[in-house]
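Appendix B, Record 12. Input sequence as logged:
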Amino acid sequence: MLDKFLNLFLQFIIYSFFGYLIEVTSCSMRNKKLTLNRGFFLGPYLPIFGFSCMLMGFIILRYKSDLLIVFVMSAFICTTVEYITSYVLEKIFKARWWDYSDHKFNLEGRVCLFNSLLFGLGGIAFAYIINPITSFIIDIMPLFVFRIISIILLILFLVDVIITITTLYQVKVSSIKFKSRDVTAELTKIIREELTKKRDIKTNFFVRHMLNAFPQINLNDYNSPLSKLKRYSTKTFRKKQK
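Logged structural output:
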């Protein structure tokens, strides 16, 4: 049972890493410079890709004999996951993490037809190339090595998740501490104090990492903590530049 779980987890991490590489390549080409800071997790992986691939593995691999079905189902699965992820993140953090409103045939700016087509092609690559290679690599690993690597990666991933979620939670719930509607001054003061505390250096690093990972983040709530933090960070950076 444990080995089966570790096998699934290792596949999840590998697929998430592939997704990270794809995202880094895409963003680097679009920005015309190397962009490594993607996603709000610290590690080089994007769980949304890993989760989508795991779903595809459970659903579409049985239809490998039909290329069209693999394409359509992959596009549907990944588009659905992207939409739900965007919706949940926005509801929790009052922020639009990505926006495809400028793309044709988009749905609420959360998903778009162009990406869905890419997901379909990605599903084909997953079914016929990535998944077979991943399965082969895991299968040829000595059991002891497989367990050690999987457990180490699992521990690192869980630590990353705990630290990241804690940081996001701290940023979000800080708003409930204020009594007035306009809390800009109070929040700015708290942020300045937090930035000067040595014991909070790590927390501030993770918050800045999250904001840097999504430089184009669309914050639809002007008074949300994330929105205020981003405005403050931008203002502070500009002052230092002067």
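Residues 143-173 form the longest helix (31 residues).
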